[in-house]
Amino acid sequence: MFKNRKFIVFLIVTLMGITFCQAAKECKLIKGLEDDDDVEKSSWFGIGFFSPAQLPDEDTEIEVFRFSTIYTYNKAVNGFDVGLICYSGNANGFQAAWSNHTSGIMNGLTIGLFNIAEIEMNGMQIGIYNRGGTDSDDDIASKKASSSGAQFGWANCADAVFTGFQLGITNVSTTLFKGLQLGVVNIEHKPDKRVEEFQSKEYKDGKKKRSCIQIGLINFNPNGFLPVCLFVNF
Fold this sequence. Notes:
- This protein is of the alpha/beta class.
- It has helices at about 1-25, 135-140, 195, 200-210; strands at about 40-50, 55, 60-100, 105-115, 120-130, 145-160, 160-175, 175-190, 210-220, 230-234.
- The chain contains 4 helices and 10 strands; from the N terminus they run αβββββαβββααββ.
- The longest helix is centred in the first third of the chain and has 26 residues, at about 1-25.
């Protein structure tokens, strides 16, 4: 009986929040919600239940704090971003959620079960699964395929040219890793040939060098001391 009451209260509060968000957007209670596409919309605070039921709308940049009850998306979040599922275009600051997903560039500290920065990650990711960077042709051509920092988790994946540190059960680098991989299984893939077309001479020279140190039970590195080596590879 008590559990049913708690669920009913939660449902009522959620419905009230959704209604308030929709009403506020209709009445444009928050500054910057005008329909002028030429104006950058921003707000110091954001709250959402399940996008698009949120306040302010998805095209608004949050400058200080955002709270996501279930799932919320904004063009950018600069500051503190907490909740259940936090999704943004770009993020600068601190993220803490069950799932943190940035479709652009993430600069700062991210803590959650699943942390993903699709284009670039500069900072630190702590979780079960961490992924940073991109291997898409467009982003490589625009020199965005470069990340730096540290990843701590069960499984870590660096899709970009990554400089830093990975600590986990499984650590994977798909492009070029410059730093230390510490785990049970460490993998550095040989960069795709298409990556080289857009990179500088410094990158091409660096690819030939042993820039990745691996310490783990088994280590895979085509540019290492051995392609496959137990315990240590470099």
